[in-house]
Each structure stands twice: as structure tokens, then as C-alpha cells.
Amino acid sequence: MSIAGLAIDNDQKKPGFSLLISNTSKTGWTRIDAMTDDDIDTSGIPPLDKIFFAQAKLRIPKPMVSKVNVPVDVETLD
User: Fold this and answer.
1) DSSP code of residue 24
2) Tens-place pLDDT, residues 36-75
3) Cβ atoms 38, 31 nearer than 8 A
4) C-alpha angle 19/22/28, rounded to 5°?
5) What is d(CA 19, CA 11) in angstroms, rounded to the nearest whole number?
6) Whole-number Å distance between alpha carbons of 25 and 2
7) What is the Cα–Cα distance from 46 to 53, expressed in whole angstroms?
8) H helices present in the chain, as ranges
9) Alpha-carbon distance 37 to 47, whole Å?
10) Model confidence, pTM
11) Is residue 76 over pLDDT 60?
């Protein structure tokens, strides 16, 4: 399985079968960019009330960066 390489082995019937996933978006971005706020159907979204905001918590994710020490030969840097 490789997420960055976009090759995923996920076919249970054929061992070793690789499904290649395209990174080309099929979203009509031109159509979406042309939409106004009034064009967006928000009827299925309940309004946010004072109780929602009173119970809301700000959650900031921890950085996914860590320090790594790698030994490198001096000749590599020349």
C-alpha cells in the first residue's frame, strides 16, 4: 500500500492486484467557483445556537513534525 504513490493493493480476490488511483479531480471547480452563497442549499444544516457555542472547544492539532538525527559521511556533502 502506498498513499503518496497512489498504488493501493485492495482487491481481496486477486492477490497482488494494484488499483491505481488518479489524482485528477472530477469536481467541477469552475461551476463551484461561480456559485454564490444563495446557490448553496443549506436547508439540511441545523442553525447553530448559543448552546452549541457555549459547549464548543477549540482543538489545535499537535504538529506532525519531529526532529531526526541522520549521520552523513563528509564526502556526501562535498
Assistant:
1) -
2) 999 999 999 999 999 999 999 999 998 888 888 999 998 8
3) no
4) 140
5) 8
6) 19
7) 14
8) 29-34, 50-55, 74-77
9) 16
10) 0.33
11) yes
